[in-house]
From TrEMBL, chain A:
Residues 374-387 have a biased composition (Basic and acidic residues). Residues 19-33, 327-353 have a biased composition (Low complexity). The lineage of its organism: Bacteria, Bacillati, Actinomycetota, Actinomycetes, Kitasatosporales. It holds the Pfam family PaaA_PaaC. GO terms for molecular function: phenylacetyl-CoA 1,2-epoxidase activity. This is 1,2-phenylacetyl-CoA epoxidase subunit A. It comes from Streptomyces reniochalinae.
From TrEMBL, chain B:
It comes from Streptomyces reniochalinae. NCBIfam families: PA_CoA_Oxy3. This is Phenylacetate-CoA oxygenase subunit PaaI. The gene is paaI. GO terms for cellular component: cytosol. InterPro entries: Aromatic_CoA_ox/epox (IPR052703), Ferritin-like (IPR012347), Ferritin-like_SF (IPR009078), PaaA_PaaC (IPR007814), PaaC (IPR011882). GO terms for biological process: phenylacetate catabolic process. PANTHER family: 1,2-PHENYLACETYL-COA EPOXIDASE, SUBUNIT C, PHENYLACETIC ACID DEGRADATION PROTEIN PAA. It comes from the Bacteria. It holds the Pfam family PaaA_PaaC. The lineage of its organism: Bacteria, Bacillati, Actinomycetota, Actinomycetes, Kitasatosporales.
């Protein structure tokens, strides 16, 4: 139906208007009320809100906060896994892990792009991350101590992320919803790869099995915390659900995740570290023990094992790379200058490189060469190897 | 070279080692790149090279065993990669120049070997992209700011001594070495010239051991790199992953 893809004109902010502005300049209170009503109706009718559409300021701010936090989580999340790239114990695993970490950089790119459609640029958001004004998922403040942690992150952390993110593919904001479709496809690869890594360890030597169990022991509870505080304490949930940014409550999603993981842990021959885990006939769900919310708050407040380390590395990479970004911008400016004057400087005019998007380095390969199939190819090759 | 051993089999080891070791070095960048786009780009190059190494090692399976035995269970002196690829990443300029020097060598080499080396046709397309990426960045950095120019010139000067080795004939690799060197020289001079960088006049064939990687003599950082790469695999003898 055309109304799904083409929002009614009444919601449009108007051609040529700054997409960051929430209302057309000088809208009267009556006009504003009409726009609000049209927005509410569109959300209620499951239509997508697009960048040029009118939207309430608080809706925009909520989305920017959420998308930015998600983007930051992708790029900070590269660190604990990259920690094992140079030590990956087989070439097949090394290829899978490198491709996975690369996917996370790619997710960061899509998500910063989605935030940009709301009028907030990547540089601005990175600055907020680097100065601690925006957060990333607390799960990445835990260390990856053994190779099995790479598997536990894939199985549990990516698994929890997928449980959280699949409903976001139906988020009311179009660019975010579309980015999430792609992110979720890649994340489910990662989750399967993590599960398969743990399975190999579990079925391996005694030492390998112990390594896998230890990783699950350490990652299980922090993974449950990834769904956020219990519903009654969740600051942003109610309004986000009303706006259809969010579709299910934290506790609902957490329960869904536990229900999925229990049989998988059994298949892995690994134990989930919760003595209270038992099937509840009445609820038809798994009951589980009490989450240590004090730990959650501590890590969130900056006192997790790796908060400082993660942020330090991120800032260092950014600061160490400043001269590279400056050089790219300076070269682009020189090129532009060389292209316009009637008298090109002799000798220098030969220096022709493709123009860069403002202040950014070039995307190295066209999107059709997106990295995700590599992980799959490697995995398939590996499966063939071992069969 | 014995008449019964197909040339591709012998060629596979030094070429595979080049690809593996440079891939490993590029993998060290993950989470440290100057912009997000370069996280993606450097990982792409690393993955291409790792794929090449695995395809090359596969040809040696009958002689040397599985790809993991070849990568993880050889000692430093048994690796036949050129010393250029094992050089530490340094700053971004250093990594770019190392890639420029290597890809400008690897692309025509693979092109020459296409008939005898099954992987070369696919690899030559990948390497053309690596080379283009390195050339674009050399131009940007050489031309960009005073600082980027100085850093890039330092990288060129430091890595120059490792480039002579690339053209010493390698046993089993049926290439026209002089032609390769001429082509490399022309290509590199053109890029450095466009970038406003100076071609060093220092020797490319040193009297010391620079250039002995093909004989299994490496530089000091290589041993530490291998220790890190091989540690976990070696800690669990016989385990599968």
């Amino acid at each position: 139906m055309s109304s799904v893809t083409t929002p009614p004109l009444s919601r449009r902010a108007g051609e040529g208007k700054d997409p960051a502005g929430s209302a057309p300049g000088g809208a009267s209170p009556e006009e504003e009320a009409a726009l609000q009503a049209a927005f509410d109706a569109a959300v209620a009718a499951e239509e997508r809100i697009e960048p040029r559409d009118w939207m309430p300021d608080a809706y925009r701010a909520t989305l920017v906060r959420q998308i930015a936090q998600h983007a930051h989580s992708e790029i900070i999340g590269m660190q604990p896994e990259a920690n094992w790239i140079t030590r990956a114990p087989s070439l097949r695993r090394k290829a899978i892990l490198m491709a996975k970490v690369q996917d996370e950089a790619g997710h960061g790119l899509y998500l910063y792009g989605a935030a940009e459609t709301l009028g907030t640029g990547r540089e601005q958001l990175l600055d907020k991350l680097h100065t601690g004004r925006q957060k990333y998922s607390s799960i990445f403040n835990y260390p990856t101590l053994t190779w099995a942690d790479v598997g536990a992150i894939g199985w549990l952390v990516d698994g929890a992320a997928i449980t959280n993110q699949v409903p976001l593919c139906r988020c009311s904001y179009g660019p975010y919803a579309r980015a999430m479709v792609r992110v979720c496809k890649e994340e489910s690869f990662h989750q399967r790869q993590g599960y398969e890594l743990l399975l190999a360890l579990s079925r391996g030597t005694e030492a390998q099995h112990a390594m896998a169990q230890d990783a699950v022991d350490r990652w299980w509870w922090p993974s449950l915390m990834m769904f956020g505080p219990p519903d009654e304490e969740s600051a942003h949930s109610a309004r986000s659900m009303e706006w259809k940014i969010k579709r299910h409550s934290n506790d609902e999603l957490r329960q869904r995740f536990v229900d999925i993981c229990v049989p998988q842990a059994e298949a892995l021959d690994l134990t989930l570290p919760d003595p209270d885990l038992r099937w509840n006939e009445q609820r038809e769900h798994w009951d589980f023990g009490t989450i240590d919310w004090q730990e959650f708050r501590d890590v969130l407040a900056g006192n997790g094992p790796c908060n400082e380390q993660r942020l330090h590395q991120r800032r260092a990479a950014h600061e160490d790379g400043a001269w590279v970004r400056e050089a790219a911008a300076a070269h682009a400016a020189k090129q532009a200058a060389r292209a316009t004057p009637p008298d090109p400087a002799p000798g220098a005019a030969d220096t022709k490189t493709p123009p860069l998007p403002a202040e950014q380095a070039p995307q190295s390969r066209p999107p059709e060469h997106a990295p995700q199939p590599r992980a799959d190819e490697s995995a398939q090759r590996g499966v063939e190897h071992s069969s | 070279m014995s008449a019964t051993t197909p040339p591709a089999t012998l060629a596979a080891l030094p070429l595979g080692d080049d690809a593996l070791i440079l891939s490993h070095r590029l993998g060290e960048w993950a989470g440290h790149a100057p912009v997000l786009e370069e996280e993606v780009a450097l990982a792409n190059i690393a993955l291409d090279l790792l794929g090449q190494a695995r395809a090359l090692y596969a040809e040696l399976a009958d002689v040397l065993g599985s790809e993991d035995e070849i990568a993880y269970l050889r000692e430093e002196r048994a690796f036949l990669n050129c010393q250029l690829v094992e050089q530490p990443n340094g700053d971004f300029a250093h990594t770019v120049v190392r890639q420029l020097f290597f890809s400008t060598y690897q692309q025509p080499l693979y092109a020459q070997l296409t008939p005898s080396l099954p992987l070369a046709a696919k690899a030559v397309r990948e390497v053309a992209y690596h080379r283009d990426h390195a050339e674009q960045w050399t131009l940007r950095l050489g031309d960009g700011t005073e600082e980027s120019h100085a850093r890039t010139q330092r990288a060129v000067d430091a890595l120059w001594r490792y480039t002579g080795e690339l053209f010493r004939p390698v046993e089993g690799v049926d290439a026209r070495w002089e032609e390769l060197e001429e082509e490399w020289d022309t290509g590199i001079r053109a890029v450095l010239g466009q970038a406003g960088l100076t071609v060093p006049d220092s020797p490319r064939h040193g009297a010391w051991s620079a250039g002995a990687g093909r004989q299994g003599v490496h530089t000091e950082p290589f041993g530490r790199m291998l220790a890190e790469m091989q540690h976990l695999h070696r800690s669990h003898p016989g385990a599968t992953w």
